[in-house]
Design a protein that fits this description.
Blueprint lengths: L2 E11 L3 E4 H4 L7 H8 L3 E4 L6 H16 L8 E5 L10 H9 L6 E4 L5 H14 L5 E9 L9 H4 L4 E12 L5 E9 L7 E2 L26 E2 L1 H22 L9 E4 L4 H10 L11 H4 L6 H11 L8 E8 L3 E8 L4
Helix pairs in contact: 3-4, 7-8
């Protein structure tokens, strides 16, 4: 039997602590106006000191399982896309599996920074279409506040913490909807433009008064913003055209653009290149900031909770990340 991958459950979680632009302006030389004008960001959520990335992932995952009407015992594999794991090893996925009460089935992490969820969805889709798994729990979860230099106004304003999750199920290909396909790319020659080169130790405190860059080894994001912006706009425009051409679709066939939430200017540029009105593009960057691999599933969950999705609609998910890594997924919505 030919199989296809369907989304049957969605979940999301954002930490309780909200850091507004106004409060951030008391920590670093910036302003609410400056941040909004350049990024579209109004606030970001910050992980609590006692929380770990796996805790964010578990909260979103449990929502997704409940939404699908199944339990962790019905899952055949668990994948976590993250750049900020609980520890170097074991994988955050294995910790999430344990915290959810699962045992025995495979669990692994994937690291493609902000493109992590898009990469993971493409990977899992291929495995499910082969018949390897019936149901997979896929999570994007990040604690980006712990690898930010809170003295660098060019980067600290951009990032936040959160998680999003989907439950995927392999169904008969004759059933309407499901994954259409994906396109992925990477070019390591750009790596110096956006990176965090030091070892991540996961011990940076989560209270705002204690935020710091620890010389003992906490990674700090380094970014050459103007160069990243130029490449991102170009590559996203190209990958959108590529994925549509690959699956013999037109820009006008896309009902919803679900992009990585990095910068409002990049979002608007992508929509403009697609000749898509901005009301057909999901925008959550103002409330969440850039949550890296959690960004796309959080945006998808936001659209889902607004009850705007209809069976048969075509969704285009896309992301651009350090590496540089970028990609896009096409999904024909099938969840009623």
């Amino acid at each position: 039997m030919m199989l296809n991958t369907h989304i049957i459950g969605l979940g999301a979680y954002l930490p309780e602590r909200i850091l507004s632009n106004v409060e951030l302006s008391t920590m670093v030389e910036t302003s609410d106006e400056w941040i909004r004008e350049r990024t579209g960001i109004k606030q970001r959520h910050i992980i609590a000191k006692a929380q770990h990335t796996s805790d964010l992932a578990v909260a979103a995952a449990q929502q997704a399982l409940d939404d699908a009407g199944i339990s962790i015992d019905d899952i055949d594999a668990l994948v976590v896309a993250t750049t900020t794991p609980d520890m170097i090893f074991p994988s955050t996925a294995s910790i999430v599996q344990y915290k959810l009460g699962g045992k025995g089935f495979p669990a692994w992490d994937i690291q493609a920074v902000c493109s992590g969820f898009v990469y993971a969805l493409a990977q899992v889709d291929g495995m499910m279409k082969s018949g390897m798994f019936k149901r997979v729990l896929l999570i994007g979860a990040e604690s980006m506040s712990r690898i930010v230099d809170w003295t660098d106004r060019n980067t600290c304003v951009l990032f936040g913490d959160g998680s999003g999750a989907v439950v995927l199920e392999a169904k008969d290909k004759n059933i309407q909807g499901g994954m259409v396909g994906s396109v992925l790319h990477c070019d390591g020659s750009y790596r110096h433009l956006l990176m965090a080169e030091h070892q991540y130790n996961g011990n940076a405190p989560g209270e705002m008064s204690d935020f710091r860059v620890d010389a003992a080894g906490v990674a700090a994001i380094e970014m050459k913003g103007n160069e990243v912006f130029r490449v991102a706009v170009t590559k996203l425009g190209e990958v959108v055209g590529e994925v549509l051409d690959k699956y013999h679709l037109k820009q006008s066939d896309v009902d919803w653009l679900v992009p990585h939430q990095a910068n409002i200017r990049i979002l608007k540029s992508t929509a403009k290149k697609m000749k898509m009105t901005e009301d057909r593009m999901v925008v959550t960057v103002g409330e969440h900031a850039n949550t890296s691999s959690a960004s796309v599933p959080l945006a998808l969950h936001h659209l889902y909770k607004q009850n705007k999705l209809e069976v048969g609609q075509l969704l285009l998910l896309e992301a651009f990340a350090g590496g540089f890594a970028w990609g896009a997924n096409l999904v024909r919505w099938s969840k009623s």
